[in-house]
Amino acid sequence: MRTEQHDISLDQQVALKGAAERLTRHFEGTFNKETIELFLLTSYDEFADRATVTSFLPLLAERFAKQRLHAMARVEGHDDGKPIVLFLCVHNAGRSQMALGFFNHHAGDNAVAWSGGSEPGTKINPSAVAAMAERGIDITEEFPKPWTEEIVRAADVVVTMGCGDACPYFPGKRYEDWPLDDPAGLSVEDVRPVRDEIERRVLELLGSIGVAARG
Fold first, then answer.
1. Is pLDDT above 60 for 98?
2. Any idea which fold 10-75 has?
3. What is the mean pLDDT of residues 191-196?
4. 84-208 is classed CATH 3.30.2130.10
5. What are residue 89's DSSP bridge partners?
6. Quick check: is 134 catalytic?
7. Least C-beta-crowded within 10 Å: which of 14, 15, 44, 107?
8. Locate the Phosphotyrosine protein phosphatase I domain: which residues (predicted)?
């Protein structure tokens, strides 16, 4: 197997085959196998150039492809009625990940949130992870990732945090810009005020889209 840019080892081919089968079952009746494999392999390419541990590439590709396919389904009219919010920053390693964590914590299953970066990093900011853990929210399962056109098009609200002109813009979509300090290189102590302001804004956002916050 070969993507547009990369050769794939035998072990990763096996892992990607399993991922394609799972995604095909999940999106049965919505997308055909060829479409799913295309999304999976292009998602693999998104991470391959900057991956520090290549053994996780098939898993990252599967998770990102699943998100992209959900977005494409929404764009094509398969709407479950849940509002979708997209949080964007530069590296998708700090601010947008904390916002995603708070959104999922407070919204539960009543809304959907995604995050992305204009220049995705290689790992989540450890100070952001620690600051969120203090609030009982684990963001270690997340990973920096880019945004794609279908993800932006599917979102009802796009929240930008410091990515400026690199952030995507689609006319007619609701945008909010949150001027927040970048936690890159900051201590946990210095990240806490940023974290708390993000939670305040997330709760305000939930109210504005008609989603009751949990707990």
1. yes
2. Helicase, Ruva Protein; domain 3 (1.10.8)
3. 98
4. no
5. 117
6. no
7. 14
8. 83-208
15, 100, 154, 167: the active-site residue: 167
Q: Which of 88, 89, 90, 194 is catalytic?
A: 89
- C-alpha span between 48 and 167 (Å, rounded): 22
- Mean pLDDT across the stretch 26-45? 96
Mean pLDDT along residues 10-39 = 95
26 is catalytic: no
pLDDT at 5 over 90: no
pLDDT surpassing 80 at residue 58: yes
How much of the chain exceeds pLDDT 70, in percent?
95
**Catalytic residue status for 198:** no
- Would you kindly state where each structural domain of the chain is located, as residue ranges? 10-75, 84-208
**Catalytic residue among 163, 186, 198, 206, which?**
163
Same fold, 10-75 and 84-208: no
Could you tell me the pLDDT band of residue 125, with boundaries at 50, 70 and 90?
very high
